[in-house]
Amino acid sequence: MSRAEQREQTRRALLRESRRLFAAEGYGAVGLSQIVNAVGVTKGALYHHFDDKTALFRAVLAQVQEEVGRRVAATADAEPDPWDQFVAGCHAFLTASADPAIQRIMLIDGPAVLGWNEWRAFDEATSARHLTDALTRLIEAGIIARQPIAPLAHLLSGAMNEAALWLATSADPGALADTKAALTRMLESLRT
Amino acid sequence: MSRAEQREQTRRALLRESRRLFAAEGYGAVGLSQIVNAVGVTKGALYHHFDDKTALFRAVLAQVQEEVGRRVAATADAEPDPWDQFVAGCHAFLTASADPAIQRIMLIDGPAVLGWNEWRAFDEATSARHLTDALTRLIEAGIIARQPIAPLAHLLSGAMNEAALWLATSADPGALADTKAALTRMLESLRT
DNA sequence: CCTTTCGCATACCGTCGGTATGTGAAAGCT
DNA sequence: AGCTTTCACATACCGACGGTATGCGAAAGG
């Protein structure tokens, strides 16, 4: 195996195990020794690939965010109508964020570990980006009223984040459907 | 000074400095030695009053939550009309949560330190409680459509939390007004 | 074949959360 | 009043964890 291959393999293994452990136990509860033991390397390897523990988390978060962003975009793009794209994208985000593993990394530890500012930048670069883009298009097309986009985007983003967190712990089997219904009503109210 | 007085005084001082430091630097970045040095006691005192670091944070969070809850309730109760109470309460929460010190403790570190479940329980006991109560009254009064309350409450709660976080870092001076306007439109859409 | 690179291991350190134990003053008892 | 008990801390200490400095051996380059 070449050195580049070996390097890539180790890095991926570190990311895999980190993600698994961070998702399962939370950033603070996971020690670096746990991670390197699970991978079968030492801390030397870890610090060769990442500057510190937060850099490792950053890489994991970027991976998670990109996955969610892709899922949202893919679902939205499947719809031909702009409005339907918007609604489908929102529902897709809610569904994707329902995974507790995604939540712990993306919604719980993300802001606490990196600080809200950097976390926001991550979100803006991936899933939230699609939201503002969609809102912009809908306003340009005259489908929803012309208004400042940023406040609306944050209200909607926060609504979906929190709803997703709640869904994960809700015992009610109809909760997802109820939430999607409430969200849809909320979105519908934006149409002119 | 009696022993009970001394005890109470030390406890309050620990809570004061903890809250200050947690708000300023974040839970993870604050060491217990920082806190006890600032107060002028030792770790012995701290561990005499609190089981561990998370218990200290819990006490601080409870204090913050109760303050916010009181402010929201007070503002809402000043309005005679149920619908106006609802809107005023939401705006009051947004205003109260605009304080970065409140945010760091209540919205950023809260879920990460205690886990989302326990954090939810705290929120439910204070500020979110007022939201569900208000929604229940509005539905009973026929002012908004009859629908599951919990999903709606979480959507709104999340929307306001995220909006507040965004407002704190937004340089735009009109952001608060824009956000309140967008929130008001969102709330208005609930009316039958 | 010799040198350089580099991916990783080993060994070690400071700090932090947490604990076990000591102590002196206030509170209760007779 | 004097003796005992309680208790609000202080002191001393420990293990674990994040982080670093250094060594090493195999692949890459000439």
TrEMBL record, chains A, B:
The family database entries (InterPro entries) matched by this protein are listed as: Homeodomain-like_sf, HTH-type_TetR-like_transc_reg, HTH_TetR, Rv0078-like_C
Which key words are in the record?
DNA-binding, Transcription, Transcription regulation
Which molecular function GO terms apply here? DNA-binding transcription factor activity; transcription cis-regulatory region binding
Which residues does the UniProt record annotate as the domain HTH tetR-type? 8-68
The answer to whether UniProt assigns keyword Transcription regulation to this entry is yes
SUPFAM superfamilies hit by this protein? Homeodomain-like
Q: Extract the PANTHER family matched here.
A: HTH-TYPE TRANSCRIPTIONAL REGULATOR BETI, HTH-TYPE TRANSCRIPTIONAL REGULATOR RUTR
What positions does the DNA-binding region cover?
A: 31-50
Kindly list the organism's lineage: Bacteria, Bacillati, Actinomycetota, Actinomycetes, Streptosporangiales
Q: What is this protein called?
A: AcrR family transcriptional regulator
Note the Pfam families from the entry: TetR_C_41, TetR_N
